[in-house]
Specification:
disordered C terminus; 6% strand; 60% helix; five-stranded parallel sheet; 20 helices; Rossmann fold; 450 residues
Length: 450
């Protein structure tokens, strides 16, 4: 739809991108996105891969993780090989002109002193193979996840020194609050072109929400909900109150005809208590969390059972957090217990486990050792039903650590039984890794296991 505000912004970015890559001296295009635009730029890169956009270049979107300058080129080259292989082997929709790509990567194209040479020389060859007339630009969008500024300076500097073909470009993206590529832009000012988007995605979402039929309650509600979320982001308390009231009025009015409006009422109160949490107005937040819990309980028997149980669990978990911050440990502990029961009922093992952990921690801090041990033990047994990636990627290691050193644990769970469940997931050095939970070393360990 031509008037779609999201489409308009994407098309505007395509124009900015096209203008940038066609500048004669430019080899790298850097998008410097505001924090709230960063996710949209991710979408934009995916959008550029579509066959029906107005852009003029051939785009490769490369997502290889940056580990170090020594290996990055090889990772990128292997990723390109996989993309070429996929193109050659995947069945094409009718109407797509297909030509097999016969290009083969050459891993001998290495200069010892230039860490980008392997990749750039191969991409020069690929660009010349795909576009021998050099009348179309080939763009390589590099996400460079986990790269640090010093490493980015070296690798991108080497890429420029290596000598890129005239129809080859590199695309990168920076977050304005945490820029990584500032030095590259400063050092190579002629070769690096900045695009600074002004997307106003909040405004776009409001425009989009207002486009629906105003006689339909869903469309009117969506418009006010979008305004509510934008008001929360901008910390406009008066506007938050105004838009929340309108949302609740619409939902309550239509509740008799459709019980699903209860879900919207819970969501509005959840937005309100999170807003109060952000403002550190905890008592007011507890009030709104209580209203969210009341609304969630009304969902039981009125909306699908799984969704209702999950809502009750989530709202109790939210209020429990507010109680905990307020120093009301007993109340928090009670909320975490109720949350765990309801997550168990809907078989949400991850949230069941997290609620039990919080319940056990608060019980332990209150000196209720038996309740704490029971909570930790119950949480630990969920290792049998949870996906291994969830176990490694969640706070489950905190449960293992707390339980392993808990007095009286061996009476119910021996070291041998614990290890039988832990080793297949975390390896023989599981205790060392558990103790590193939350550090960079633990994250690196997880990535090595992928």
């Amino acid at each position: 739809m031509e008037n779609n505000p999201i489409q308009q912004r994407m098309d505007g970015l395509v124009r900015d991108w096209t203008n940038a890559i066609n500048l004669p001296s430019v080899k790298i295009v850097r998008i410097a996105a505001a924090d709230d635009e960063y996710a949209t730029i991710e979408d934009f890169f995916e959008y550029m891969l579509a066959i029906n956009t107005n852009q003029e270049d051939l785009v490769f979107l490369l997502k290889s993780q940056f580990e170090d300058v020594e290996t990055y080129s090889e990772h990128l080259l292997k990723e390109v090989e996989e993309l070429v292989k996929t193109w050659n082997e995947t069945e094409k929709p009718s109407g797509i002109v297909f030509e097999k790509i016969e290009w083969v990567a050459d891993y001998n194209l290495v200069e010892k002193e230039n860490k980008a040479s392997l990749f750039i020389k191969n991409m020069n060859a690929l660009a010349n193979y795909l576009i021998p007339e050099k009348d179309v630009i080939m763009s390589l969008v590099l996400r460079m996840y986990f790269v640090e500024a010093k490493e980015a300076d070296q690798w991108l500097g080497d890429a420029l020194k290596c000598g890129m073909e005239e129809h080859l470009r590199i695309g990168i993206c920076d977050k304005q609050s945490e820029p990584v590529f500032d030095n590259v832009k400063s050092i190579y000012s002629k070769e690096v072109h900045n695009i600074v988007p002004n997307l106003d995605m909040d405004g776009a979402m409001e425009e989009l929400a207002a486009m629906g039929d105003p006689t339909q309650a869903e469309n009117v509600y969506r418009k006010h909900l979008t305004r509510l979320m934008n008001a929360v982001k901008k910390r406009n308390g008066k506007k938050v109150e105004e838009e929340a009231k309108k949302c609740l009025e619409i939902a309550s009015k239509n509740l008799k005809e459709d019980n699903n409006w209860l879900l919207q009422i819970v969501m509005v109160y959840t937005i309100l208590y999170n807003e109060q949490l952000g403002n550190k107005n905890y008592e007011r937040g507890i009030y709104f969390a209580g209203k969210a819990i009341e609304s969630a309980f009304f969902c039981l028997g009125r909306v699908p059972q799984e969704a209702a149980f999950r809502l009750v669990g989530q709202t109790h978990l939210g209020r429990g957090g507010l109680y905990l911050i307020s120093g009301k440990m007993k109340e928090a502990n009670a909320d975490y217990k109720v949350a765990a029961e309801h997550f168990k009922s809907c078989k949400d093992h991850l949230m069941h486990c997290e609620s039990l952990r919080l319940y056990a921690e608060t019980a332990e801090n209150m000196g209720e050792k038996e309740d704490a041990l029971e909570g930790y033990l119950t949480a630990f047994q969920l290792i049998d039903v949870m996906d291994q990636d969830l176990v490694k990627g969640s706070t489950f290691p905190m449960i293992i650590k707390a339980l392993y050193s808990f007095s009286g644990r061996k009476q119910f769970l021996s070291d041998k039984k614990m290890e039988e469940k832990i080793v297949p997931i975390f390896g023989e050095n599981w205790l060392e890794m558990i103790n590193k939970f939350g550090t960079k070393d633990y994250i690196k360990y997880q990535l090595e296991l992928v």
